[in-house]
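hey can u check if this looks right to u? its 253 residues, i copy pasted from the old doc so theres a chance i mangled smth
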Amino acid sequence: MALSIADVARMSGVTSRTLRHYDEIGLLVPAYVGSNGHRYYEQAGLLRLQQILLMRELGLGLREIAAVLERQIDQVAALREHQRRLLAERDRLDVLARTVACTIAELEQDEETNDMGKISRPENLFTGFDTARYESPARTQWSDQAQQSAQFAATLSEAEMERLQGEATAAMVRMAEFMQAATPVTDPAVQAEVDTHYQGICQMWTPDAAGFKALGQNYVDDAQWRAAYDQVAAGLAEYQRDAMVAYADARLS
């Protein structure tokens, strides 16, 4: 039994516009188009749409998904692989949830002792984060810079990585204190913190004004970066971004 595009949109949560786009790029072609011009889908199309949505959940782009589906032969084996990756992602998110829970517990304990903002093990703020998953988009947007960053990271020892993570967390806490005190992002003290942040990035690559602003926006848009900032203080990602924009306009333009 064939289902109309409206039926598929309703049951899957994917908009009709998106389904039409998938058809236009050859990713999900309907079983047939009726005399009324409406697209109709049969079971094979629904199963393909499920796979597309599974791979979207796993962070794949449409071109990557198309390549995977083109190579796919055994549908059940493909679904088993999707299930394996989803279970692995579930386990990773469980680790992240425990990381956040530990941070909340530590900050709540600090509230009781009137010692807000003190994290005993700063590196623990980042347990479970998979920063490698963002390597591909970074290479697409800033290929040379991403290569420089990877080369720099490869030279660091585990102790040096822990030190840098600790310094980054301490800087985030200082920015949170400025934000909570309603300090303008253009304040010299705030801009001094941003300058330290910029100089640290310059150890890996040297962003221009547009690149530095884009990096700040990424702290807001990227779910994992935003969560890391929000663990320190709600709204900190936006405050950091605004401070970076002010820095870029004043010193990098």
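Residues 131-140 have pLDDT under 50 and may be disordered.
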